[in-house]
């Protein structure tokens, strides 16, 4: 028997970043929105824990015990005294090292898949605790929809979303390392006073109303200057999307994927075509939000 779980990518419509904490992490006010680009994780009983991966960028995905899918299986098995002898297969569609929480999505997917396979009876809270141990973005991958994440981003409050938001995503030629982008954020902010991160009420209202113009006026990403500093060509991609008529253009999370909020499905097609032929990115995708969290597809 095997279990397959589908997990969404995310875009951060607000990413407010505070100063580095003593533990090296940063306090965040992180407004996550799950978008309809999905990885699938399939777990099958096996002789030992193994990981395989297919899809774009699969060659950059580690297949050893450092992969979040393996760590998720081991963490759940450890809690319930189960031998984590399973084969985990990742079918990737979320860009690798793209700032869309692809690795985190896979971790959440593996956790839900193993939980269903083993029938542990773990509560949602227990699963969310394990997610938070695995990484700051992993709890959100489990719940999906929209949420405000504080602390490292792992302490979630679900947010109301009053409509569908249409997005275009431009994938870059190479990835960016999240720790490197946070380090660059620290370097750029040296000697300055970094305010406490707080969620924008305008942004939360825009989400609740389902109003793309209001959301476009309120999106922000404090990691964007750091991502642009490490990957200056992203400025060309952002400019190309704005010129094509996007309501808002921003780096997704730590990048380098760039995210373009558009008014409707037709403008998504137009902006995607324009970006696709701009020569400023590797590939372009259209997706809508909010998307559901980790979902068991079948067994
Ligand atoms: O939590 P996660 O392991 O996904 O984070 C990856 C890296 O991103 C951390 O090692 C840290 O460098 C950085 N990070 C941070 N502050 C956060 C979340 C992540 O500095 N709130």
Report on the structure:
A hairpin with a 5-residue loop joins β1 and β2 (26-45). With 299 residues, the protein is an alpha+beta fold. The chain has helices at residues 68-80, 102-118, 124-134, 138-143, 178-189, 201-209, 212-218, 224-230, 234-243, 265-276; strands spanning 3-20, 26-45, 50-54, 86-91, 146-150, 155-158, 165-171, 220-221, 248-251, 258-262, 283-289, 295-298. The chain folds into two domains: 3-159, Ribosomal Protein S5, domain 2 (2-Layer Sandwich); 165-289, Alpha-Beta Plaits (2-Layer Sandwich). The strands form two sheets. Strands 1, 2, 3, 4, 5, 6, 8 and 12 form an eight-stranded mixed β-sheet that branches. Strands 9-10-7-11 form a four-stranded antiparallel β-sheet, sandwiched between helices. The longest helix has 17 residues, at 102-118. The site of cytidine-5'-monophosphate has 11 residues, from β2 and α5.
